[in-house]
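Chain A, query sequence.
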Amino acid sequence: MNPKGDMTPSPLAPSWLTLPADPADLTPADAPALFPAGAARDERGRLSLGGVPVTELAARFGTPLYVVDEAELRSRAAAFKRAFDDAFAELCGGADVYYAGKVLLNTSVARWVHEEGLRIDTASGGELAVALAAGIPAADIGLHGNNKSDAEIERALTLGLGRIIADSLDEVDRIAARAAELDTTADVMLRLTPGVHASTHEYIATAHEDQKFGLSMQARAGQERSDAAEAVRRALTSEHIHLLGLHCHIGSQIFESAGFAEAARRLIGFLGDVRREHGVQLPELDLGGGYGIAYTQADSPSTPQALAGEIAAVVAEACEQAGIDVPRISIEPGRAIAGPAGVTLYSVGVQKDVEVDAEDTTALRRYVAVDGGMSDNARPVLYDAEYSVTLASRAPTGEQVLARVVGKHCESGDIVVKHAYLPADLRRGDVLAVPATGAYCWSLASNYNYLPRPAIVAVKDGHAEVIVRGEDESDLLRRDVGVPAPSGHGEGTPE
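Chain A, predicted structure.
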């Protein structure tokens, strides 16, 4: 029988979702790769990741389960470093690539990316603690954040972090004051908002004026100078700030290079203004990143080589027009490193069909409930994010039905995969695999409905290893002071 039987596309399916010619094919010719390069199916159709069958992973570690392909993550980190080094070699001696800790951070991942030549970008004291625990040198760590605490600033100064990215005039002043008290000098980048609107979700577009991040490059009515220009003045006149340069980040999950190009032009023009006004050329420029990845067959991500080449050409031209030397460039690929390396495994539970109105007819949608949901992947409910899914524990052949994969939480918005075709003979206990979950899924995980957060398992060369332990009910109860102490451990809260 044809893998999709005699079906025609469901009228409930979005236009980009097509019936698969072969549901078992992980790399169809007309669609982007969604799974890590090392993913494969055996002769029985079972999926393996990093050489380990998902059936073995589910049996050993349970589901839900975050699986990270170490080789895929490392290769993507190395590819960005190599591409941007090559593109900027003649312009400024190469480029620095920062791994965004907020995407997925634990000591194993931090070590992997650092071994591939990347630095680490942190956005809180907690992320900084993980990077330090991984043995990352302070000089290779940056500290972001729009509301850094006094303790975070002091820790960054005491450690001698490679850079602190100041997000406001308040932070410039506070960094300078604390550095003076500690009799040290802070290496500072200024985060600017260049007014470039990325084609992405409103809450992950971060360079327009009406949002919380950065220093505006536009002077408001009654201002002598913009906040960005004033921040430069204060930093350059402070004895305790070494102003490294400028930083911007226009958003996340961006496919088009036009936004990056325009942001680069505006910041380089600003660097030219700084040189003319202050007689100083700032040595560094961070152009951010947030490069898009494929979550569904509708996505068309670029390659590191293409992005690097396009950005390098714009930077070279803009610097020539501004009359300045090309500064040392740094970028932050964001989800493009860890996202495609991650796959989440779920077990199928309850299924039910519902009849839905569709134009002038009705159609069936199958709801497939799994043992996780918004507690392990909050992106669909936060950003209306789309994902893909495949039956992983056996061959996904036969008739395909339009399905919606949902979680077990007490929320109607608890959706894991909104639109997908899955085998009509799906049954309880089957293992589903949702690709491209290496970014922000574990980072945003919660204990909603008191579900324990899943483990993270790294796979490579046929071996699987827990790199972050999953929680159990004892973890959920440990902080509840009303729970009696275990016998023999005394009363009250543990010291």
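Residues 40-69+342-464 form a domain with the Lyase, Ornithine Decarboxylase; Chain A, domain 1 fold (CATH 2.40.37.10). The two ends are 65 Å apart (CA to CA).
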